Amino acid sequence: MNTKEVANKYTEWMRNGQGQQVLEELYADNIVSKEMPNWPGQVVTEGIKAVAEKNEEWMANVEDFHSSEVSDPIVAGDHFSVRMAFDCTFKDRGRQQMEELATFKVENGKITEEQFFYSM
User: Fold this and answer.
1) CATH architecture of residue range(s) 3-118
2) Residue 7 predicted with pLDDT over 90
């Protein structure tokens, strides 16, 4: 798949709550995930197993999803970005509305890097 095809699959699956499918089918084994410096966990996570564990920990803390939104992707060369917004109730901090910009790098039909930009 080219970058646009990966971006469209990512967007479709995330809108349909298929995050696990994104992880299994679109992420490279050597994925690098970057959070903001004030993120309470590890800022840089490397490898599919570690990224999967990070996602599982985040999801385990979600008590309820009230709404979520994923924008259409913007593609430029081997990168794409989407705006994501979530309204969630977390077990450890209550209800929170979040908005972030997620940017991805695609190589050989797989996402090799992701970086998230948000305010905390």
Assistant:
1) Roll (3.10)
2) yes
